[in-house]
Amino acid sequence: MANFDLNISPLHRQAGKDRGSLVGLHAAAPPRRAARGRKSDQLIILLTFDGAPPFTDQRISELLGRLEKGFYETPGSLTSASRDMIEELNSLILNINLRNAGSRPQITGAISVLVVRNDDLYLAQSGPGHLFVLTPKKVEYINDPQAAGRGLGVSRTASIHFAQMPLLGGYRLLFTAAIPESWNAETFQIAHNRPLPVAHRRFLEHAGEDVSAALVDILPGKGIVNLIG
Question: What is the rounded CA–CA span in Å between residue 118 and residue 191?
Answer without folding.
Answer: 26
